[in-house]
Design a protein that fits this description.
The chain is mainly α. Helices cover 72% and strands 0% of the residues.
Length: 534
């Protein structure tokens, strides 16, 4: 059989799927399939050997020279530290007692804490495992329905995919060529609506099936009044300060994503230190003083564009933080903790880098055999126009997420469909917001990749830490309503783009061809050169 150029793109996709089903690591599978089809294309005369020189050039350009990707290890380190420092335990305990008197109170606390932790950890595995270990025994003890327990824990863990500063959003911004700050702004609306959907479902269960989400008995509430509120505030305020510093400085243009991630990494060590029982009282006072000074300086910098004031306030805060870190490493538990954070960061960063290298090998060859043209023709010829395109892409990503995680989807699929999405969606929301809307939409969609049976990683994490009396069928069936809620969120983002674009800066509606610049005519005095002097 003669292989033609038109046959190469579908053959590459088919070969990739077969290679992945074998179970070999995805990064090396991508590179192997790409290079194999590259040499086949050279043999068949579709391009020559010089074309493959684009692969190392693209790798060095997208990996070694891409400063945005440097933010990934910083945010990963921040999440790795915070997942083990006791922050989740303190917040879940205090919020559980705060909401305990109402039906579904423990469910509300898991949802809210999941939202907060999602904004400061960025890792689904850490969130699901931590919340399951802490909350599942308590919810079982007080008679919550087991399928509701497994569902709310898994779903609240996946919200970290969407809440800034999510690693998913950083990768999406890089692959789509958009600003990370704009991607974060676009994600806030869906994040809040997602939490409201989760809370609304819990509220309805409390009305129609109150036995599934009972209130906590009064004898189990050990804290009341100001003592309870104080514990809640001490758990939330430090996290809120960290989120404000990391996201606020980046969105105001005071720091790049990498610089903001570096501040978040240092802030994670500080939060871990102040939550440790052996940390000195003096260290807490120095930290509070530094944070107050930094907060005041940041507010002044927001009101007045004097960068010197911001730098001075940041210097004071930085000095306090350095002192805190110096104290922290003297505590043996924290010094193990920091080492584990480094190991986790190295492992995840290496995984991302190798996937990026493998996807580059695949995508260069795919484009070399006119894969981009084939894909554009396939997607633009779908019935239904824009809405047909969006429905097809979301269904495609949904089913693809059964087998691939978000890194693989972002690095393999997005570079191919991003130009098509820009062309198709620009008439709907404008050229500036098109890819932001598209990226956040896919991020909401990819949340379900952690939930749908039987391959959802959040379900695997939950199965690993759940007691033996919790059946796997309970975990799978418990996830189904929450998958439905996330599907509703995808539909809302598609139907109402303003959910994403509402916070973005509106482009100036100016027709440059009609701009006139009128320069007033100035009558100059006559030049009097005079007669030359004798």
């Amino acid at each position: 059989m003669t292989i033609t150029l038109e046959m190469m793109p579908p053959l590459m996709f088919g070969g990739l799927i077969i290679a992945m089903l074998i179970g070999y690591p995805v990064a090396f599978t991508l590179a192997a399939v790409g290079l194999s089809f590259g040499f086949l294309s050279i043999y068949l005369g579709f391009f020559d050997l010089n074309f493959l020189q684009a692969i190392p050039g693209r790798i060095f350009g997208s990996v070694l020279s891409n400063e945005l990707l440097l933010a990934i290890p910083f945010f990963t380190f921040m999440g790795a530290i915070l997942e083990r420092c006791g922050l989740a335990e303190d917040m879940l305990d205090s919020m559980g007692q705060l909401f305990g008197p109402i039906r579904g109170g423990l469910g509300y606390s898991v949802i809210i804490v999941g939202f907060i932790l999602g904004a400061i950890t960025g890792t689904v595995a850490a969130q699901v495992i931590a919340m399951a270990l802490i909350s599942m025994p308590v919810m079982i003890r007080y008679g919550y329905n087991i399928r509701y327990i497994t569902g709310v824990l898994a779903a609240s863990g996946t919200i970290t995919q969407l809440v800034p500063p999510s690693l998913v959003l950083i990768v999406l911004a890089d692959q789509l060529g958009k600003s990370v700050g704009d991607m974060y702004l676009g994600a806030w609306g869906p994040s809040v609506f997602q939490i409201l959907l989760f809370a609304g479902y819990t509220f309805l269960l409390g009305i129609f099936k109150p036995s599934h989400v009972p209130a906590v008995p009064i004898e189990a509430r050990t804290l009341t009044g100001w003592a309870l509120w104080k514990k809640c505030l001490l758990g939330i305020i430090p996290s809120a300060v960290l989120i404000f510093v990391v996201l606020g400085t980046m969105m105001m243009g005071l720091a790049t994503p990498t610089e903001a991630g570096a501040m978040g990494a240092v802030g994670a060590i500080v939060l871990a230190a102040i939550h440790h029982k052996d940390f000195s009282a003096t260290g807490r006072k120095v930290l509070i003083t530094g944070v107050i000074a930094g907060g005041i300086g940041t507010i002044i910098a927001m009101l007045y564009t004097e960068n010197l004031l911001f730098k001075l306030a940041f210097a004071i805060t930085y000095a306090a933080v350095v002192w805190i870190c110096a104290e922290a490493v003297k505590i043996p538990d924290l010094r193990d903790l920091i080492k584990q954070g480094y190991e986790t960061t190295m492992r995840i960063t290496c995984m991302v880098t190798f996937i990026l290298i493998g996807s580059t090998c695949f995508s260069v060859v795919f484009l070399g055999v006119s894969g981009g043209v084939w894909l554009e023709h396939l997607l633009t010829s779908l019935p239904g126009g824009v809405w047909g395109f969006l429905i097809f892409i979301n269904l495609f990503i949904f089913f693809l997420a059964f087998f691939l995680d978000f890194f693989e989807i972002a690095f393999i699929i997005l570079p191919m469909i991003a130009p098509i999405a820009q062309k198709v969606l620009a008439p709907v929301v404008g050229p500036d917001a098109a890819l932001i809307w598209f990226g956040v939409m896919l991020c909401v969609n990819m949340q379900t990749s952690f939930l749908h049976p039987p391959f959802g990683f959040a379900l695997f994490y939950l199965r690993g830490v759940a007691p033996k009396e919790v059946k796997s069928s309970d975990i799978y069936w418990g996830a189904m309503p929450w998958i439905g809620l996330q599907a509703i969120m995808v539909a809302l983002v598609i139907a109402f783009p303003v959910v994403v674009t509402g916070l973005l800066d509106k482009p100036l509606d100016v027709d440059l061809n009609k701009v006139k610049i009128e320069v007033p005519q100035i009558e100059l005095p006559p030049l009097d050169f005079g007669q030359p002097k004798q």
